[in-house]
Design a protein that fits this description.
This protein is α/β, with parallel strands linked by helices and 379 residues long. It folds into 2 domains: 252 residues, FAD/NAD(P)-binding domain; 96 residues, D-Amino Acid Oxidase, Chain A, domain 2, CATH 3.30.9. Helix content is 32%, strand content 27%. The strands form 4 sheets. A 7-stranded mixed sheet has the order 5-4-13-14-15-12-16. A 6-stranded mixed sheet has the order 7-2-1-11-18-17. Strands 8-9-10 form a 3-stranded antiparallel sheet. The protein starts with a strand and ends in a 14-residue tail after the last helix. The mean pLDDT is 96. It binds flavin-adenine dinucleotide and ligand 5PR. The site of flavin-adenine dinucleotide (FAD) has 32 residues, from helix 1, strand 2, strand 3, strand 12 and helix 9. Flavin-adenine dinucleotide (FAD) binds next to helix 1, strand 2, strand 3, strand 12 and helix 9.
């Protein structure tokens, strides 16, 4: 059999996962990354069973575990009063930095023999599997993957209709030193290894999500409505934030020394994830609010299932139909996750605590690598 080939736009979490899974199945894979250097933006991340299973399936678990942690609990506070401490029993989850996840995926991709071209922008793609690069070069592939983020050129060049919903809140994210002893000195009774979601809704909506990422690094996300000029300002308004969260002063001071960027929440929904031989994955297909911490999780889950679906279809002519079936099977999980994340972002209901139970954890528990996952369960 001749080697099948994939052209992928975007070396983010989605593109690198799909590339690795295909290359490990014997495909030749070329990834185009428009940035001149391979790296990730952003600070920390929470991964759940769905993406942890994918990382395990591509052989990346050892690397991932080396610099990540599972905090003892996910604590929620309102005006500094504890509302809940969820130990998330039965759910696998890890906290880590984005650079660490990126390095883990990049290593796996290179080990698998993926070709990654930095400084290469994909301009457009056609349904029959041709990509055109900014350099003018054209290439054809059995599968073209648009993993080029929320502003996807692949998606837009195919004129796939898109709906965009913006939320009133947004967030600034930082990686700072843990400074655990200083925090402990300020609040000795606090378990500073927990994720702590510090909410304040009255008199003003200001929230700090405190997420230890490993022994040395802390991920903090500062949420404020977009129309709160001081709350959404970068670099952060240190006086404002420390006046509301005095026990976090040591780490807020560290955050104030970096420029930062305020991201408004948005949800995008496309009419279809596929057009012929082209498939969209990750934020190109389904950007979501971060409330459930599942944007990258869904990206990696769909990257994996796409690679398996494409690989299992050896008849080239049958590939477009196989991609459509992939979307039919997998998309409902992501659609529901987007809806739930949007709901939490709209209502700020997570501030009530005890938010990780019932339907909400469907995606967190999902195992996209289980070949029997879509079988109907008979009692
Ligand atoms: P991206 O990361 O956007 O990668 C796309 C890549 O494509 C980029 O490298 C870009 O440079 C490149 N590119 C773009 N256009 C082109 C082109 N034309 N040609 C070639 N290359 C191109 N998710 C979680 O799972 N857990 C979390 O805890 C979490 N927290 C979040 C917090 C915030 C505040 C936000 C905003 C998001 C969060 N997410 C989280 C979501 C997550 O960051 C994204 O869903 C995820 O990074 C999407 O990955 P991607 O590979 O699809 O896109
Ligand atoms: N979880 C995570 C996160 O980064 C955010 C949220 C939840 C890991 C915000 O950035 O609720 O917005 C959230």
């Amino acid at each position: 059999m001749t080697t099948r080939h994939a052209e992928i736009a975007g070396a983010g979490f989605a593109g690198l996962t799909a590339a690795t899974a295909l290359a490990q199945r014997g495909w030749s894979v070329r990834v185009h990354e428009k940035a001149p250097e391979l790296r990730t933006e952003g600070a920390g991340i929470v991964l759940w069973n769905n993406s942890l299973q994918v990382l395990d399936a591509i052989g990346a678990t050892h690397d991932l575990m080396s610099k990540s942690m599972t905090p003892p609990a996910y604590e929620t506070r309102m005006n500094n009063v504890i509302r809940s401490q969820e130990t998330l029993d039965g759910i696998s989850w890890r906290t880590l930095t984005r650079p660490h996840l990126f390095a883990t995926l990049l290593y796996a991709a290179r080990e698998a023999g993926v070709e990654i071209v930095a400084g290469s922008t994909v301009r457009s793609a056609t349904a029959d599997g041709e990509v055109t690069l900014a350099s003018g070069e054209k290439a054809t592939a059995d599968v073209v993957i648009g993993a080029d983020g929320v502003g996807s050129a692949v998606r837009d060049s195919l004129a796939i209709p898109l709906e965009r919903q913006r939320s009133r809140d947004g967030i600034t994210r930082f990686l700072v030193p843990r400074r655990k002893e200083q925090l402990q000195a300020l609040e000795p009774d606090t378990e500073w290894d927990n994720v702590i979601d510090f909410w304040n809704l009255e008199p003003r909506v200001l929230r700090v999500l405190y997420t230890p990422a490993n022994d040395d690094e802390l991920y903090i996300a500062l949420m404020a409505p977009a129309d709160d000029a001081a709350g959404s300002r970068v670099p952060i308004d240190l006086e404002l934030w420390t006046s509301v969260f005095p026990q976090l002063a040591p780490v807020l001071e560290a955050a104030a020394t970096v420029p930062g960027k305020y991201y408004g929440y948005q949800t995008t929904r496309v009419e279809s994830w596929t057009r012929g031989r082209v498939a969209l994955i990750g934020d190109a297909a389904h950007a979501m609010c971060p409330a459930l911490a599942q944007g990258a999780g869904c990206a990696m889950q769909n990257a994996w299932t796409l690679a398996v679906a494409a690989d299992e279809t050896s008849d080239a002519a049958a590939l477009p139909a196989a991609l459509e079936r992939w979307e039919q099977h997998e998309r409902p999980f992501t659609d529901r996750c987007q809806d739930r994340s949007q709901h939490y972002a709209d209502t700020r209901e997570m501030a009530n605590g005890n938010q990780f139970s019932g339907d909400v954890v469907e995606t967190a528990l999902y195992n996209p690598t289980d070949p029997r996952r879509h079988e109907v369960q008979h009692a």
